[in-house]
Amino acid sequence: MLTHDAAMEWIARWDRQQEGYLPDREERFTALIDAVEALGRPDPLVIDLGCGPGSLSARLLERLPSATVISVDADPLLLGLGRAAYPQLTFVSADLRTSGWTGLLGLDRPADAAVSTTALHWISGADLKGVYAELATVLRPGGVLLNGDHLDTDDATPALSRLEHAVHEREAKRAFGANPPEDWRTWWDAIAADPAFASLNEERTTAGASHHGSESHLLSHHVKALAEAGFSEIGTLWQRGNNRLLCAVRG
Predict the structure, then answer these.
(1) Potential cystine with 241: which of 25, 168, 172, 192 (Cβ 3.0-4.6 Å)?
(2) How does DSSP classify residue 196?
(3) Residue 121 phi, psi dihedral angles, 5° rounding
(4) What is the pLDDT, as a whole number, of residue 61?
(5) Comparing 25-34, 101-110, 195-204, which segment has the lowest mean pLDDT?
(6) What's the domain count of the chain?
(7) Which CATH number do you get for residue 214?
(8) Least confident range of 4-13, 58-67, 213-222, 239-248
(9) Is DNA-binding given among the entry's keywords (predicted)?
């Protein structure tokens, strides 16, 4: 049985490998939670899309202890880690690409915010509109989506996009030099080799939960899909290089 302490150790290792791609990851978390807090409700209802093991959800609840956070992911192993580490969170197994996923959330009122970090780029451009359209049905008017991710502008401003990448790469080099943290693949290989996760790994394989490639890395993909889904104001709330916090307001 997966213990709380073992889960916390693996999540700490997860956070470290994620920081290898995002040396300003905690700053982006802070900006995102600042935005949720600025909505003005002391007990916001928040949906964490593609929550992974719950890194963002746990930080949000720590800052806003009266919040209700519903953490959604389709990966059985990451959900198992999160449930063992953070019993105060509500984890829901759902594939955002499958119509009707919002019905699994058990909401008793419209959500004030949906949040996500380094997750929605896995969803193809063709599927994004459906995901955002369904999300809009459970957000209150004036509610927001806050999506932190690497979102590129190659298609619209290629010279600026190259500079954004350069800023990010230089920041990572300053942070880690020649000794970056382990990468994403190494983390997954390590946890797959841990006997404590045998059943979760088997469930993950059966569910086909592994990710391949970045399907919707362009900022324009998300802006277009959000506009078509009925979000009224869409813009970058925080940015460093090509790492940005995209905000969209439900009309």
Answers:
(1) 168
(2) G
(3) -70, -15
(4) 98
(5) 195-204
(6) 1
(7) 3.40.50.150
(8) 213-222
(9) no
Cα–Cα distances in Å, from 90 out to 27, 51, 64, 73, 83? Answer: 24, 11, 15, 11, 8
- Which residues, other chains included, contact 132 with Cβ-Cβ below 8 Å and sequence gap of 6+? 145, 225, 226, 228, 229, 231, 248
Give whole-number Cα distances, 195 to 101, 190, 198, in Å.
31, 10, 5
Task: Label residue 27 exposed, middle or buried (CB < 10 Å: 0-12, 13-18, 19+).
Answer: middle
DSSP state, residue 220: H
Q: List C-alpha distances in Å: 104 to 39, 107, 221.
A: 25, 8, 26
Q: How far apart are CA 183 and CA 122, in angstroms?
A: 17
Judge whether 37 and 103 are in contact, CB under 8 Å. no
Domain that holds residue 38: 4-250
Kind and range of the H or E run holding 144:
strand 139-150
pLDDT of residue 186: 97
Give the type of residue at 209: A
DSSP-assigned letter for residue 153: -
- pLDDT(173) > 70: yes
Burial class (CB in 10 A: 0-12, 13-18, 19+), 21: middle
**Angle made by CA atoms 93, 59, 2, in degrees to the nearest 5:** 50
The confidence band for 47, taking pLDDT boundaries of 50, 70 and 90, is very high
- What does pTM read for this prediction? 0.95
Terminal CA-to-CA distance of the chain, rounded, Å? Answer: 46
Q: Look up residue 21 and give its amino acid.
A: Y
Residues 60/48, Cβ–Cβ less than 8 Å? yes
Bridge partners, 148 (sequence order): 117, 245
